[in-house]
């Protein structure tokens, strides 16, 4: 079953990521970049091996979008000054770590896949609402965890529950839109 393969794939990656982040070998930014690249290669390999067109299509839409998400990250960090990316030793694109160019796919793929499963059973509106809800929970956790790792940190902005208030609505909309 496709859902089981998706869950096992994510569980496997989560374990790999936990080890990759915990083992203090080399620069953190390089380890994260390797993890991000491993995720992308793994998704494509899984989709091809299992002939999963849904997974491949979702990845094919989200991967380029993830590359483009460097632009708002750059704007917030270089122009607005509301976001800081610590120097973790990896390569940067301006003020944004290169690993961020692929990280949005890691977050949005389970959002989209969950929305597709629910939407297939209950319709597009419920699928979009589910994607928004899953995205809200996932992005909230990511925003809280990011400064601890450290990946990024909001600076000089209003905070709600440990995250920058200005990201809540855009990440909800992004989650629903990525599903649709």
SSE blueprint and pairings:
Layout: H1 2-22, H2 28-50, H3 53-68, H4 70-80, E1 83-84, E2 92-93, E3 96-97, H5 100-122, H6 124-145, E4 153-154, E5 159-160, E6 163-164, H7 168-179
Antiparallel strand pairs: 1-4, 2-3, 5-6
Label this structure with key terms.
180 residues, mainly alpha, two-stranded antiparallel ribbon, 7 helices, globular
Short description:
By secondary structure, this protein is mainly alpha-helical. It is 71% helix and 7% strand. It has seven helices and six strands.
Structure description:
By secondary structure, this protein is mainly alpha-helical. It is built from seven helices and six strands. A two-stranded antiparallel ribbon has the order 1-4. The protein has a two-stranded antiparallel ribbon with strand order 2-3. Strands 5-6 form a two-stranded antiparallel ribbon. Helix 2 (28-50) runs antiparallel to helix 3, helix 3 crosses helix 5 (100-122) and helix 5 packs antiparallel against helix 6. It is globular. It starts with a helix and ends with a helix.
């Amino acid at each position: 079953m496709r859902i089981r393969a998706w869950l096992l794939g994510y569980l496997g990656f989560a374990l790999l990521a936990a080890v990759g982040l915990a083992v203090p070998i080399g620069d953190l930014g390089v380890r994260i970049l390797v993890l991000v690249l491993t995720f992308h290669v793994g998704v494509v390999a899984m989709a091809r091996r299992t002939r999963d067109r849904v997974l491949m299509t979702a990845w094919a839409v989200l991967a380029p979008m993830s590359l483009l998400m460097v632009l708002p990250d750059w704007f917030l960090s270089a122009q607005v000054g509301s976001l800081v990316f610590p120097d973790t030793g990896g390569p940067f694109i301006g003020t944004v770590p290169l690993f961020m160019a692929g990280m949005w796919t890691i977050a949005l793929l389970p959002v989209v896949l969950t929305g597709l499963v629910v939407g297939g059973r209950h319709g597009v509106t419920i699928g979009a609402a589910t994607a928004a809800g899953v995205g809200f929970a996932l992005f909230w956790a990511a925003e809280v965890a990011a400064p601890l790792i450290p990946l990024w940190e909001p600076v000089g902005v209003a905070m709600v529950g440990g995250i920058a208030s200005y990201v809540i609505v855009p990440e909800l909309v992004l989650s629903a839109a990525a599903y649709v």
